[in-house]
Amino acid sequence: MIDLSVKLPGLNLKNPVIPASGCFGFGKEYAELYDLSVLGGIAIKSATPKERFGNPTPRIAETPSGMLNAIGLQNKGVDSIIEKELPFLAQYDTEIIANVAGATEEDYVEVIRKLNDQPVIKAYELNISCPNVKHGGIGLGTKPELAAHVTKLAKEAAAKPVYVKLSPNVTDIVEIAKAVEEAGADGLVLINTLMGMRIDLKTGKPLLANKTGGLSGPAIKPVAIRMVYQVAQAVKIPIIGVGGITCAEDVLEFLNAGASAVEVGAQNFVDPYVCPKIIQELPIVLEKYGYTSIKDAIGRSFKDE
Amino acid sequence: MFSEDARILSNVEIAPDIWKMEIETRLAKEARPGQFIEIQVPPFFLRRPISINEIKENSLVIIYKVLGEGTLKMTTMKDTLNVFGPCGNGFPIENQDVYLVGGGVGVPPLYETAKRYLKKGQKVQVVLGFNSKDQIFFEQEFKDLGCPVSIATMDGSAGIKGTVVDAIHEQGIQDPFILACGPYPMLKALQREYTKGYLSLEARMACGIGACMGCVVKDKEGHSLRVCKDGPVFPIQEVAL
Asked: What ipTM is given for this predicted complex?
């Protein structure tokens, strides 16, 4: 049996499969369906300094091979998350990644400072790429200087490794990835959702109350693969790939593109058991394509053979 | 909750664009009235949340309205479909007489609920609202259970002209204990008039299990509630509609 474990800054993943932030809450609902300890890690729902209700509804719209969401970073605030969610997660043997969001740079620093002494959190994922909030989020993630600056502040505040989740809604993702690496990021997560829209033909108006939303699901996988492929050749820090993964073959594709681990997002809604299924199938798929380790698969797409 | 491939036993149109499907599934053992199941409709991405109409020994009956491409596709499904559930909280079964109030495609979950109240020996009054006579469905099924049924139609082509609230007024009853499911304007009207009972809400959902925050509503203090997990059934005065 192939060893699926992956070591990344701050993260000792028993396998490279991590449910993506926003698609898994704080694990409680999925814990009713299976043992969360089978997961490599969990990227928990975004934390902001104060409670956010998020956007008005409808927040969800289906698309060909995917969906749009405009949740708007709904969460109870970091203090409530520390009190109510982290003790529950502490009982599982899996690596918890805290997704950190905010409207200002100070918000990111505040959330990180509060989470620093929470042993259950093993790393941070800076969300500078949410397309559904007016301030912060994507506003910080689409310009190299701004992305680098918030990364630098986060690194100064953080007592744990910082991964930066990048937006695909940019002209040159490589430029931003490099700026973030230079600012001290320990790793990258790419990609967040692609900004999209659907219009209701009955009203002629956007279907989502927020008008635009973030596109996820299999529809965005080729975009994510391309971006991981480009960025992996330009940076030295590890990449966690995310975007449209539904099966173990998709995981291998991300590994080949240059990712060291993956996050699974919208497919959790389609098949709530998808993560354990992928973990079970991954060794079989790796063997089928002739790999004897995860490492052999990472970045194969651009390596000389 | 679990998922499985359920065998489709029947799938027929019972009123214009209203279809009834019976599936053989082990979910029947776990399901309660007022809960829903999540149905995969390939090639569409998200599951369709559909309320449970009737719970039998080894099967569930669902009734769905053709509203878009997904539900249209459902009308052509045969052999098996993948279901997940049962989801949500369902209607409470209490020791008191009840008014079951349904509007349009909100009528189906009240059927199993009626059976449970009758089984407890409670009196069950049924009030159903539709746009017009040709859209009426399930009137006879409730009558066959022995429930008195009042009908309201917006155009007056059958029963009382007006809404379900008009139909309840007609009976001269003050503040009955109500369990209701239907469109938001109907639920709002019930909320204005009555204080006792529960409302079942419909919402666009993604996960169906409380994780994604796609289907939230606010309670009257502004706190969020998830229709899929905290609901779909809420105390009549809890949700700000």
From this structure: 0.93
Q: Are A240 and A189 in contact (CB under 8 A)?
A: yes
Ordered domains of chain B (ranges, CATH): 2-87 (2.40.30.10), 98-200 (3.40.50.80)
Tokens of B150: 């009042």
- Residue A50 touches chain B, beta carbons under 8 Å: no
Contact call for B3 and A217, based on CB within 8 A = no
In a domain, A68, yes or no: no
Cβ pairs A/B, distance under 8 A: 93
Flag whether pLDDT at B49 surpasses 90. Answer: yes
The residue type of A16 is P
Q: Please enumerate in sequence order all residues whose Cβ is within 8 A of that of A269, keeping only pairs 6 or more positions apart, or say none.
A: A23, A67, B46, B47, B206, B207, B208, B211, B212
- A131-to-A64, A72, B156 alpha-carbon distances in Å: 20, 8, 48
Query: Which one from A23, A130, A247, A275 is the annotated catalytic residue?
Result: A130
Q: How far is A294 from chain B (nearest CA, A)?
A: 30
Q: What sign for the dihedral angle of Cα A178, A180, A184, A185?
A: negative
Take residue A91 and report the two structure tokens written for it.
Answer: 């009982």
Tell me, yes or no, if A276 comes closer than 8 A to chain B by beta carbon: no
For B114, the enclosing helix (H) or strand (E) is helix B109-119
Which of 94-123 (A) contact B at CB < 8 A? none
Domain that holds residue A188: 6-55+73-198+216-302
C-alpha triplet A87, A92, A94: angle, nearest 5°? 115
Tens of pLDDT along B59-90?
999 999 999 999 999 999 999 999 999 999 99
Residue A61 domain-assigned (yes or no): no
Count of CB atoms within 10 A of residue A58's CB? 19
3-state secondary structure A151-184: HHHHHHHCCCCEEEECCCCCCCHHHHHHHHHHCC
Three-state DSSP class for B104? helix
- Are the C-beta atoms of A228 and A239 separated by less than 8 Å? yes
